[in-house]
Amino acid sequence: MKVATLLALTILAFLVSLAAGKVWIGPADWFADTANGWIIAELRLPRAILGCSIGAVLGLSGAVLQGYLRNPLADPTVVGVSSSAALGGVSAIFLGLTSFPLGLFGCAMIGGALAMILLVLMTGRSGGPLGFILAGMVLSTLAGSLTAFLISIAPNPFAASEIIAWLMGALTDRGMEDVKHALPFMIIGSAILLGTGRGLDALTLGEDAARTLGFSTTRERWAIVAGVGLAVGASVAVSGVVGFVGLIVPHFMRSLVGERPSALLVPSALGGAILTLLADSLVRLTPGPGEVRLGIAMAILGAPFFFLLLTRIRMRAS
Amino acid sequence: MIAARNISLTLAGHDVLRNVTAEFRRGRITAVIGANGAGKTSLIRALAGLIQPQSGQIEMVGAALNELSHADRARMIGYLPQDGEPAWNVSAMELVSLGRLPHRNRFALPSGRDAIAVETAMIVTDTLHFAARTIDTLSGGERARVKMARVLAGDPQWILADEPLANLDPPHQRDMLALFRGAAANGKGVITVLHQLDAASLADDLLVLRNGEAIAHGPVRQVLTRENLKTAFGMEFDIVEHAGRQAIIGRA
Question: Which of A212, A215, A259 sits opposite B48 (nearest CB)?
């Protein structure tokens, strides 16, 4: 019932995302053979599909990672896949590969894949959540520093500003080509992540109990690394880094559908889609010719929420 | 039957278990006692398949434990860990339902049998009346019963418990022991680490560990002696009979 409501809201947010922008376009014009019809088909539809799918994989990845790490403060950035994929994208801009088809997308996916391989190598067969978080932090820091290094040695100010703008995360000027590249990875990654639900439930009781319930925590971790790597890697590749969705959405959903990790996955995906679609509609409404970058808008919205979350957890602990 | 045959375990260069051989039978409660660091928890974890001894073998229904599939092992053994506050604030019934995971296929919804098993376990543990309440709202004793219900819901042949009486008041300790007794009466084998020697005296069998070695194993009446306790703990005890039961009193 709640899932059905969320699904309805997702569809509604999708439609809002089609209509909203510098020019409002009502449903009557969507299929018309006019300039407005063209805007819908060529600009807003791919943008809405990407907003929906990126939000969904970020919400889903956040819910899975929080379940696996048994920590409500985890999000897709902790495993280092986002920043590594971003480093890949930045390298493509730096090396001038963006003019090639799949240049930026391919480099970002390679960056994400390398992060996945390093994560598996660093955490190995054993090691609990702590090792996983530490490995992710090392990867994030390393990728972040290398990105900063590339910006600092950028050959000209234009390249530097292009890199910085891309890093901020946005869905501006994305087309159906981007959808075609990213969507398959996101679907495969999400399918893998949805399969981890039972193991996450078992982990509620701790790692020992989960293992005696027949779950391999190693296999669970590898599935999560693969799923997050594919889904979040692809999302970063088309939109840059959009933070906070994976952190905020599962937390909201917990108060709506309860805390059982597997029950949280689909609602978190839908909630992530709704939040991203609405936020992306909102940034288009900024006055003037430009628009606020989605990543920035999300961080400005998200940071205060993060503080609130921390103080509430602290209050419950005391 | 579960049998440990000559198992030795070294953790981080430390000999935790040395050549332990012991057979456990179903329908009986075996209490594992010994001083801190004697290897009690390691033995239970090895029996549950959580750690693999470097030498020796653990056998279950005639097969080596590590040759059984994860799923088969999960259906046969119910493990009650010592720590284990649930990570998420789920309802009591959701927690108990986790015990059914080994019986369900991937993506399958809970069946009628699952529902009956969960309800039965919650009736036995007297937890059904707060099934919908979340874990955060329960007292320590209620939580302990819910965790026990989770183990019982899986209907395992064996219950392996690591210090299940820790942090429980006397009436809850009594209730927990009664649940073990009921499980044993239903033909399950119960192996439990206990620090409370009075409680251990209510078991059927006793396994005494000292520095990773099994120094005595057998019926409580034969094994619970002042000599064994002195060897195990390095201090003097008096054993007092009262109303057909034994009280174990440590000397000052």
Answer: A212
Tokens of B2: 């579960």
Query: Which of A13, A68, A72, A1 lies closest to A271 in space, CA to CA?
Result: A13
ipTM: 0.90
**Of B233, B241, B237, nearest in space to B252 by CA:** B237
Spatial contact of A290 and A162, defined as CB atoms under 8 Å apart: no
Ranges of residues in chain B whose predicted pLDDT is under 70: 107
Q: Which amino acid is at A314?
A: R
Q: Rounded to whole angstroms, what are the CA distances from B166 to A256, B88, B173?
A: 35, 22, 9
CATH fit for domain A2-317, picks 1.10.3470.10, 3.40.50.300, 3.40.50.720, 2.60.120.10: 1.10.3470.10
At B162 the pLDDT is 94
Contacts of A91 (CB under 8 A, 6+ apart): A97, A107, A111, A150
The model's pTM is: 0.90
Binned average pLDDT, 10 residues per bin, chain A of 318 residues: 93 93 83 84 90 96 94 84 92 84 87 88 74 87 92 85 83 85 95 95 92 90 91 91 88 90 96 93 82 83 77 69
The beta-carbon neighbor of B98 closest among A67, A204, A211 is A204
Interface test with A, best of B88, B104, B133, B162 (most A CBs within 10 A): B88
E strands, B41-111, are 55-60, 63-64, 77-80
Side-chain half-sphere exposure of A311, counting CA atoms within 13 A: 5
Question: Tell me, what's the pLDDT at A79?
Answer: 83
B147: which chain A residues are within 8 Å (Cβ-Cβ)?
205
